[in-house]
Amino acid sequence: MNNWFAIYTKSRNEKKVAERLTEQNIEVYCPTQTVLRQWSDRKKKVRVPVFVSYVFVRYKTEEERLKILQTPGVVSFVRYLKEDAKIREEEILAIQKLLGEFEEVTVEPIEKGDKVQIQYGSMKGQEGRVVNTQKDRVIVYIESLGLALKAEVSSAKLKKLGKDEENEGGKYHF
């Protein structure tokens, strides 16, 4: 199986989960980066996960999948269309390459008011603004042909372009 899968972990358990899965001979990837943290009495460089509460795994059998779910600190597999969400090898390699090239990388959530562009599907290339977010789904307001179109889209299919400055006053209400 060439696909990776994302698992959701308990808060601040990413590195510990990765360690436990490695001990069970399960292929795991927990991307981390070094950041400078400030405490009241000192500054220290620490390794922190890039994706908060997520770790990537690869399993071959249903028994391995069950072993992953039974590992302390694992909450669940990330699901898409009622099955474990598959992540292609190329995407993992792209993350590794990005982390190799840049010292500090941030993952920003898509929030209400963000300007976004749809990256996949029949609406590919369309830009809009986020008017609401619910778990992994967002409602995007798309203005084209003089009509307002609301589309519920998976956040994984969106590219964040920035904040929508012209709608700061909440001009659009849904």
Automatic annotation (TrEMBL):
Keyword Transcription tagged: yes
Cited InterPro entries: NGN-like_dom, NGN_dom_sf, NusG-like, Translation_prot_SH3-like_sf
Gene3D superfamilies associated with the record: NusG, N-terminal domain
Keyword terms of this UniProt record: Transcription, Transcription antitermination, Transcription regulation
Residues covered by the NusG-like N-terminal domain: 1-99
GO biological process: DNA-templated transcription elongation; transcription antitermination
Lineage: superkingdom: Bacteria
Alphabetized NCBIfam families for the sequence: antiterm_UpxY
Name this protein carries in UniProt: UpxY family transcription antiterminator
UniProt source species: Marivirga arenosa
